[in-house]
Amino acid sequence: MVDAASLVGTKKALLPALRAIAEARPDTVAERLAAIYHPDAEWRGSHPLNEMRGVEAIAERVWRPLLTSFPDLERRDVIFIGGDTNGATLVGAVGHYCGTFRRDWLTIPATGRPIYLRYGEFHRVDEGRIVQSTVLIDVLDVIRQAGFWPVAPSLGTEEQWPGPITADGVVLTEQDPAVSAASIAQTLAMHRSLGDYDDRSGRGRDGLLEMPQKIHWHPKMMWYGPAGIGTTRGLQGFVDYHQLPFRIAFPNRRGGNHYVRIGDGAYSATGGWPSVFAQHLGGGFLGVAPTGRDVTMRVMDFYLHHEGLIRENWVPLDILNLLLQMDVDVLARMQTFFRRGALP
């Protein structure tokens, strides 16, 4: 287990280094990556970026295109926490990269206006260097901000994610180990209540509202979902606008494969690559009819524990990757819109 002082030192070193990468130029970003990354580091992220290895690949495939498209990019963290899982030191973050969209990115047409690129990140650190990064950028939300909407209307509210109500999400001081342990324990207890519930019991909406998950959620809970799902408030909003449609679509899903289970004071976080294994057996979710296909989900969860309960939950999820497995290629679907009728 990493000691508290060492964890704080790791976070204090990593935060400015990550901000420096975001504000590099395309021709200097490899140097800034090399200052904090292991040369053979693994990088995995949202579709269509997916997986790669090595500092030069990360620079060439992720950062140079991003910095070319958003030349005034900056990083704004609202959560920055850490911990260890199975002996690995991990740092997690939620926030937005902000920049003016000057050149097309991932075929999405530039708008010339500010864009917020919502992210969730986990970085595994060994001897002061990042050896693995998992980065979920909400690409569908960038498409939304660019003025296109290629999927069914969201049931939740589409908006920029706010920071924690307690305004203390960037945790750069030593935390009480007992509080940290209690935070992740509460999260895992809530997860167990979700896993134990039988989606085929026929209890529908009322069953989800009354099942044991309700003892863990704050009455004013906020659930911040990815673009395509949106934000919900209260247990009723969570059930109606996300949980019930999701569980109808994927009634036999399995969780697990978590490489991150950390608590850091009043915050906790989990994540897997993938986090969820399921079959797409029901209709309605994201407007897609059931395909019967096996799917996996790249998901992260960040939690604020407040007044003894889970008050807020930020959920980066790679929607484009999930839809691709459901036979919906969002980027391909959008090409006729992206071109705006231009001739070949």
Automatic annotation (TrEMBL):
Record domain SnoaL-like: where: 30-132
Cross-referenced Pfam families: SnoaL, SnoaL_2
Residues annotated as signal peptide: none
InterPro entries assigned: Cyclase_SnoaL-like, NTF2-like_dom_sf, SnoaL-like
A GO BP annotation: polyketide metabolic process
PANTHER family the UniProt entry points to: ESTER CYCLASE, POLYKETIDE CYCLASE SNOAL-LIKE DOMAIN
Name assigned to this protein: Ester cyclase
Organism, as annotated: Salinarimonas soli
